[in-house]
Structures are given as C-alpha cells and as structure tokens.
UniProtKB/TrEMBL annotation:
Species of origin: [Bacteroides] pectinophilus ATCC 43243
Name recorded for this polypeptide: Uncharacterized protein
Organism taxonomic ancestry: Bacteria, Bacillati, Bacillota, Clostridia, Eubacteriales
Composition bias type Polar residues, residue spans: 208-223
Region (Disordered): 202-229
Length: 312
C-alpha cells in the first residue's frame, strides 16, 4: 500500500513540498512525529562531527514502541551529546545504537533522516546508505525500513556473516526521512529477547545516471514553478511504481508456504487483526509487506489489547 499522487491536494505538513495524498494517513501528520529536528537536539561543543557515537536504548527511559513517540538518546562516548535522530551514526563507521528487545511483543522505532542526500545530488554525487542489524542471534529480529509516508521500502536480510542488512533504495528521490522498526521475528516465542546493534553507513560516488542526481539536475534546470511541479510529479509516480515492484519482489522471495494465496485484501486482513483475530503466517507476511505503517500499527495495538491485555 503506497501513497497516491494527486496534483490538486497540497499537504501543508509535507516538508518536502510535494503534492501527495496518503492512503490511511501518513506517519507525519499534524506535527505528531517530526524527524531530523535539529532544534530538539543538543550538540556538545566537545564533540567533533566524525567522532564515534554510541547511543543506548533504555526500555525504562526511552519510550519508542510507537513511531509517534519522539525519543531522545544520549551518547555514551560524550555525555554532553544527545539526539532524536540516529542519522548521526553516519558520521563514523564505528558508531552504533544499542537496543534491546525485552519481550516477544516489544517493538522499537527509530527516526532516521538523511538531508545530505539532496546536497550530494546537486553536486552530481550518488550516495548509498546501508543499515545493518548486529546481534548474537540476528535471525531472531526483523528490521524494516519505512519512508516518510509509511510505505515499507526495505526488509533486512541475511548478509552472509550472521547479521542482517538492507540498502536504502537508490530510486528514492522523494524523501530523506525514514523510520526504522525492529521487532521479534517470532511473535509466538520469547527467543528473540536480547540486545542488538544498528549501524548506518554510506558510500558515495560520481553517478550522473542515478535518480537522485537526475532529479536534482532537472529541478535546477526548470524555468518556472510549473515545470518544477511537473518534474516532482513525474518522480513521485516513478517512486510509487518502484515501491510496487519492490513489494512484489519481496512477496515472490517468500518461501512457498509463506506466500499468501487468499482473497482478503490488506485492509480486510488488518480489520481481522483489529477484531483480535490471529493471522496465519502467510497472512502476516503479506500484511507486513504491503500495509502502510500507520494502518498496521493501529491494527497491531488493537489486536494486542483484545487478545493479551483483556485476558489478564
């Protein structure tokens, strides 16, 4: 489920200035959730930009079990530094965030923004962002990436070295704000309890053929606002198409016994969750690929209340 382009609906809360319409509502709305807010970060005068940062997620003080919650993390290397945005991990390859999954129902959300992308694109530089999940048993966790609008744009997979990894799509020239979700991969077992580390790294190269660079060049060469809007609309349509392709590829890559073959739509499956029904493995895999984060979290929390909390 992706956002729909609509040329006549300007969203005042859309920081990118795009003309978009959300299905089920976007995850950034009415200033409930803002990523990359420098005004809410305190940068230590003692800390250099390229120094290591070690952020620690504390279940008692860091409330991050919903994407709505805007949580500040303190740096263990420099006690004067804190941040709401784990994009700061980009500045040093040894930087990481350490988090903990303390139950089968625990979910952790992290804000991640990459405003440098726009600057690099204007310079004709293409960049690639890699997000890694490291732990003693990384297979016990899922790491999923969502864009500003709640579209799922990446699910971390085994990197061949015992960890999980994903790359931010290189066709993403619509947004530079993201949400990372970490969860227990087996909701029926507590086997996933434990700590994990998230690392974010970037590589840069000259690539004038990349979507981001081409988008930046076309905007710069536009003669007026109408041309700029037409270019934005073109790339937003391309973005939607690429998300559809990604979701279909993810679905095709599932094991045969996890490929959903039913007739219920994503919306119908989410409604089942809201009523307290437990989805099958294939139904849940289908929903996690195609559902908007906003819709999925509402259904997930409603399901928890009806099946777990009300039984106590």
């Amino acid at each position: 489920m992706v956002f729909l382009y609509h040329p006549w609906i300007p969203r005042g809360d859309d920081k990118m200035g795009h003309y978009v319409h959300y299905i089920g509502g976007g995850i950034v709305d009415s200033k409930i959730y803002e990523t990359g807010n420098a005004a809410k970060s305190f940068k230590s005068p003692m800390k250099e930009l390229n120094e290591q940062t070690v952020l620690i997620e504390n279940a008692k003080t860091n409330k991050n079990d919903s994407y709505h919650q805007h949580t500040k993390y303190d740096d263990q290397v420099d006690r004067y530094y804190s941040t709401y945005d784990i994009g700061t991990l980009l500045h040093n390859n040894e930087s990481y965030l350490e988090g903990t999954i303390d139950s089968k129902y625990d979910v952790d959300y992290y804000s991640f923004s990459y405003p440098q992308k726009s600057f690099y694109s204007k310079m004709g530089i293409s960049s690639e962002i890699t997000i890694s999940l490291e732990s003693k048993n990384s297979q016990a966790y899922n790491l999923v990436l969502y864009d500003l609008y709640g579209n799922q744009i990446g699910i971390a997979t085994d990197d061949g070295h015992g960890n999980k990894q994903l790359t931010v799509p290189n066709w993403d020239c619509v947004t530079s704000d993201y949400v990372i979700r970490v969860e227990n991969s087996n909701m029926t077992s507590d086997s996933g309890e434990g700590s994990y580390r998230i690392k974010i790294t970037e590589t840069k190269n000259r690539d004038t053929s990349s979507s981001n660079v081409q988008h930046s060049q076309e905007i710069a060469n536009a003669d007026n606002s109408e041309e700029k809007n037409a270019i934005k609309q073109k790339y937003e349509k391309t973005y939607q198409s690429e998300i559809d392709k990604l979701h279909q590829m993810q679905f095709e890559a599932l094991p045969e016994d996890e490929k959903y073959s039913g007739t219920d739509s994503v919306e119908e499956l989410l409604n089942k969750m809201k009523k307290g029904e437990q989805l099958s493995v294939s139904e849940m895999a289908y929903v996690k690929i195609f559902a908007n984060l906003s819709d999925y979290e509402r259904a997930e929390k409603s399901n928890y209340i009806k099946t777990i909390f009300m039984q106590k």
